[in-house]
Amino acid sequence: MTTALKSIKQNARTIREKILKGQKPSMRLPVRALNNVRYKPSHGFFEITGKKKERTLTVGTVKTFAQTLRMMALSKDLIENDDIASKREAYYISKNWRDAGFKEQPESDTVIDDIEAMLGVNREQIGFIPEEKGGEVAGRLIVIDSDRDTGKPIKIDCTRFGSGAYSIPIAVEHLKFESKAKFVLAIETAGMFQRLVKHNYWKRTNCILISMGGVPTRACRRFIRRLSDSLNIPVYAFVDGDPYGICNIYRTLKVGSGNAAHLNKFFCVPQARFLGVTPQDILDYKLPTHELKAVDIKRAEDALKNDPFIRHYKAWQEALNQMLSLGQRVEQQAFAKHGLNYVIDTYLPEKLSDPKKFLP
Amino acid sequence: MTTALKSIKQNARTIREKILKGQKPSMRLPVRALNNVRYKPSHGFFEITGKKKERTLTVGTVKTFAQTLRMMALSKDLIENDDIASKREAYYISKNWRDAGFKEQPESDTVIDDIEAMLGVNREQIGFIPEEKGGEVAGRLIVIDSDRDTGKPIKIDCTRFGSGAYSIPIAVEHLKFESKAKFVLAIETAGMFQRLVKHNYWKRTNCILISMGGVPTRACRRFIRRLSDSLNIPVYAFVDGDPYGICNIYRTLKVGSGNAAHLNKFFCVPQARFLGVTPQDILDYKLPTHELKAVDIKRAEDALKNDPFIRHYKAWQEALNQMLSLGQRVEQQAFAKHGLNYVIDTYLPEKLSDPKKFLP
How large is the ipTM? Predict the structure, then answer.
């Protein structure tokens, strides 16, 4: 039996026993908010701290209480039947719960988040999957999945996709990996990924290429995390050199996000490091740039002031301040000025010759 | 030599000869606009009609003229070296063209579109790829790609991905297919796709599942089109029952879009038919719905009034009018009300028992 299943049953049993004794049942849930978060670099992600809220069964809470129990029951069914439900589907299922039905999806999402935090697991482990997927893989990696009908293992060889790629499923907990790759290169744009795939870049450098397609989805982050943990190899991020690439895409990949702090333990990639594009690269490689917009400047200034991750690393403060004083941002595609494959033949080899210089 | 390459050389030669004779060189380009478009159901897509504009070399046009020639030269290089450039990269390359450099990407995009229309090919055939990708595949299909380094064919078996999928590359012209599937099911949401993949739905019905992830990208549409053409099997669309699903996602998949009419020949899937969710399904399956928003109503009314595709089919006018009079829209996930796998066990089998009833 999975830990999640045990935990659901244990929680349900406690509540049942209280009711049978004529006592008021209650649940204890971690407070999910930025003021209940800390960043410890030795742990490597935004962590939820001790604050808890108690939900006791009263006239005022009866509906939420019932909804939470029904959602736990649904989760139990999902785990036992090896099935999945998207958050949207979970909302629609409740339409059959009569008085306990949800009016709007944000209500059911909140209850799922509460259960996730209460059980200390991630949503995918209790059968709920996000609506969106994302993340493609090519290179020196064999993914081991299994056939639902036969239970037999399926080996997926990511060197055998030609110009295509392996699309990461929405839930990745069950996957296993085999690889002798030396690192994972996590790439922001589909266009740059396609260039590196087209030229079999993974062969040259013995690596695994992953396209994040902007801010990586939960499944994509979890996939990279499990990959890096199980193969014990580093992850290098290659994103646009702008405040969004650094403070949103890279920061979320590495330490998680503030408003989902109860999950970051699972969805962060603390071993990630920032290959580029850095503000210094603009100067070193004479790259064409764009002026920072007001929204870029605001994002960088906010991060310097409020983001516990940026505030922890002097190197990041210096890099963001350099970007602000240059007043310029730069894109991954900018290397094309020097020839389409300059990025493959010159930039990446030069950078990869000394990963110790990567930003933290 | 590819047709595109021949055509580039032929065009360049004509211009060169005119210059050598001391005459003013010119190019003839189709007018790309909605008022130069028609819909013939026998052809199956929005077609560009005869109007052409002539771009003659004068003091006023010298920059655009030079840019068009340089872009044609870049395209020639790309084809000859079997390389690709995203539209963004093409823009950055021009930063080395001195006076002929583009100031903003929309300028270079327009020139690429002009060349595409002039040569009567699609952008991918002349080496330019879109920035975004999209589209995942699972089921009874073998995709045949080739290894860039060895030239050897690579067979990609889409039944062997477990819970994952094959991610469609940005350019798909070179792919070949092997399959004994009976149809392609093109699905709007990643969540529904994941459900059907998780339950090996393609095994039960001998089909190919494709996730479009909203309005399908060019690569995704072209992939479905080539698949359906080469295997000679029908394509069934399974999208949300709302004006966006019908008038944007499905309409674009089937006949293309108005503002890219010079391309629809390549990027439409005339053999597509609409499985659901139809407004009638709301009643037949007692589905939970949402009220139409103002934007939904406007979209449906616009389509009834202006969209040549909708205006051609009485069945679509009736369906949209039924939706407007119900005042309701419905999502793919709504079947979950009757149980998570109702869609697999009941809805899809009932629908697929009579594809002749599908909307056109």
Answer: 0.82
